[in-house]
Amino acid sequence: MTHRFATLDVFTDQALAGNPLAVVFDADDLTDDDMLRIAREFNLSETVFVQAPENPVHSAKIRIFTPGGELPFAGHPTVGTAILLAMERVGGATTSETDLIVVLEEKIGPVRAAVVLKPGKPGYAVFDVPKNAVEVIGETDRDLIAAALGLTGHDIGFENHRPTRFSAGVPFTFVPVANIDAIQTVAIDSGSWDAAFGADEHKAALVYCRETVANAHHFHARMFSPGMGIGEDPATGAAAAAFAGVITRFDSPPDGTHRYVLEQGFEMGRPSIIHLEVDIEGGGLDAVRIGGHAVRLMDGTIAI
């Protein structure tokens, strides 16, 4: 079998930055095992497989695989695939600004993305997060977490922020760290990981602080998920979606729409910028949107 594929760098407007993504077209004939083996061959944090939609008014059905298994939802695959399918729809380059709507059928449900294509510019997509962040009850021991991250207990926490678990489809443990210097020294201790973050397959941690590289940004972050086959991820949209719950809980933003910029991947040499919009109503989280650019990098075929 031969399948066309493309790669993109997502959550960046520059090639060879952001989070790389592989997208395999016309994947209806591939088995789950085929998709997992192809994802392991690409060895990126996620690989998307595009299939015919179950609802003909939608753009496509997609399956998202890490090297360790399938995800019900993920941010950078949603942004990258939406932009790629929009580019395919218009036949490549545009001669004027073009706005399109792309609806992707993911395991979590339909995800609607608005895509903007401009001549000679990277595409931009913003999507409605299909499930609002909810807190996941679980142990978040500061000293165990510090040991798993190669930090001290004094490094964990700032202001009123403390470790919590939230999920907007994929659960993450969110670890506030005092400053960017501490984040840059994180070194995973795999022997301590399960004790700190749980034994399930989604034992992932997003470490964050308010101090940022760029003054216009709001949070600096790193994401680690050894259980999903991801040592460190350059940009994690699903974590950003769940992070809306962290912001709502600890920062208590007033009713209205609030916009945040998260920077990630800088320690990996893959700087990534994630745009997060949070709607607060009645003091609670009402809606969340994730946005970012993507650059199409490579096109080819894969034969298995």
Walk me through this protein's architecture.
The protein has an eight-stranded mixed β-barrel with strand order 1-2-3-4-6-7-8-17. It folds into two domains: 2-129 and 293-303, Diaminopimelate Epimerase, Chain A, domain 1 (Roll), CATH 3.10.310; 134-289, Diaminopimelate Epimerase, Chain A, domain 1, CATH 3.10.310. The chain has 304 residues and is of the alpha+beta class. It starts with a strand and ends with a strand. It is globular. It has helices spanning 32-42, 75-90, 142-149, 180-184, 190-197, 237-251, and strands at residues 2-10, 19-24, 47-51, 60-66, 69-71, 98-106, 109-117, 123-128, 134-135, 164-167, 171-176, 205-209, 219-225, 230-233, 256-264, 272-281, 284-303.
How many DSSP helices?
6
Task: Report the radius of gyration as a whole number of Å.
Answer: 19 Å
Alpha-carbon distance between the termini? 5 Å
Strand content: 35-45%
Q: If you average the pLDDT, what whole number results?
A: 96
- At CATH level 3, the topology of the largest domain is Diaminopimelate Epimerase, Chain A, domain 1
Strand order in space, largest sheet: 1-2-3-4-6-7-8-17
By CATH reckoning, the class of the largest domain would read Alpha Beta
CATH homologous superfamily name of the largest domain? Diaminopimelate Epimerase, Chain A, domain 1
Low-confidence stretches: none
Number of domains: 2
Shape: globular
Label the structural class.
alpha+beta
